[in-house]
Structure to design on (342 residues):
């Protein structure tokens, strides 16, 4: 693992097993003073980790933490398309880092993970809370040449791949909220961010970011406030036991590589039915700004007011269908507010 900056990864690695380690032993292994160890432990607490000071014995991390590890992820992925895998302690954003790297050759995938991000992003430039060890923050780069005509549906196809990866680990209740959210029991489990670099008529580099809540500390839950559902949910809460982030990362890489190769040839068509089976918005009352309000584009012109209706699936290009009193409206981008299912 590349440590990145600002995080005492050596101390985390020593405490990750959840056992008690004396300040003296930590200082000796790190080659620093016990005062320096105390300072680094305080830094871990400030990052949201719970470090327990055991009187007369030392420190331990509660609960234990499985750190991301290159070889474990590769073994879980068993993905021939994977070209490079970069694992960091801390980055500003895994998407930003991959976008700054050379484009992978056709048919190959580059992946990047970080234990935490200082400037993680969601859709529309929103910040993405990324507590250290509390989630999985994975980005993957791929080259499209040419770019598929229904490229706008890539986030939906990615949702199908992520859902399959979670099913590989036994979680089969994930729903997909158009265009990029992962949902379980009306709680937000994670999200997807697709970014593109390149020309429309030439090779394009796409970077797909996937963020999944694994075991969120309380302060991180308070920082995540979606405008729908019942707030954030994590894998530990759903499954009731620890989840291997290395196994999850490997399955996400493998399933995403399969999806991207298929999407390159056939676009969204092979994934549309799978998305329909997991469609969180189907049958729910929805509202979205009309095109004139500057919030959402649709195939309809119209006044700058709210479109209200019921979710009616997605079209072949990934556009959201909303059944209204005036007919079906296609939503191609923007924010959708959702109510309770009727």
């Amino acid at each position: 693992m590349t440590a990145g900056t600002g995080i005492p990864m050596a101390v985390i690695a020593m405490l990750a097993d959840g056992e008690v380690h004396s300040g003296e032993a930590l200082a000796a292994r790190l080659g620093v003073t016990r005062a320096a160890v105390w300072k680094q432990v305080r830094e871990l607490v400030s990052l949201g980790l719970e470090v327990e000071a055991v009187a007369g014995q030392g420190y331990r991390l509660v609960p234990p933490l499985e750190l991301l590890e290159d070889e474990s992820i590769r073994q879980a992925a068993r993905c021939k398309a994977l070209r490079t895998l970069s694992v960091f302690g801390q980055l500003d954003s895994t998407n930003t880092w991959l976008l700054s790297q050379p484009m992978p050759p056709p048919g190959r995938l580059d992946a990047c993970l970080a234990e935490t991000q200082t400037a993680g992003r969601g859709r529309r430039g929103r910040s993405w809370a990324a507590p250290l060890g509390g989630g999985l923050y994975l980005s993957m780069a791929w080259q499209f040449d040419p770019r598929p005509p229904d490229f706008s549906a890539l986030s939906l196809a990615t949702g199908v791949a992520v859902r399959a990866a979670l099913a590989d680990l036994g979680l089969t209740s994930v729903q997909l909220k158009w265009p990029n959210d992962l949902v379980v029991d009306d709680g937000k489990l994670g999200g997807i961010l697709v970014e593109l670099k390149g020309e429309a008529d030439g090779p394009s580099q796409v970077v797909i970011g996937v963020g999944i809540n694994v075991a969120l500390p309380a302060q991180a839950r308070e920082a995540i406030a979606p405008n729908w559902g019942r707030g954030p949910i994590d894998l530990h809460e759903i499954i009731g036991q620890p989840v291997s982030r290395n196994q999850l990362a490997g399955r996400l890489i493998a399933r995403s590589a399969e999806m991207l190769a298929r999407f390159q040839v056939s676009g969204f068509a092979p994934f549309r039915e799978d998305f329909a089976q997991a469609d969180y918005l189907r049958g729910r009352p929805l509202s979205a700004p009309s095109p004139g309000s500057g919030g959402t584009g649709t195939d309809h012109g119209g006044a700058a007011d709210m479109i209200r209706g019921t979710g009616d699936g997605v079209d072949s290009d990934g556009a959201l269908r909303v059944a209204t009193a005036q007919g079906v409206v296609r939503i191609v981008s923007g924010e959708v507010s959702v109510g309770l299912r009727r």
In short: Confidence is low (pLDDT under 50) at residues 294-304. The first strand starts at residue 51 and ends at 54.
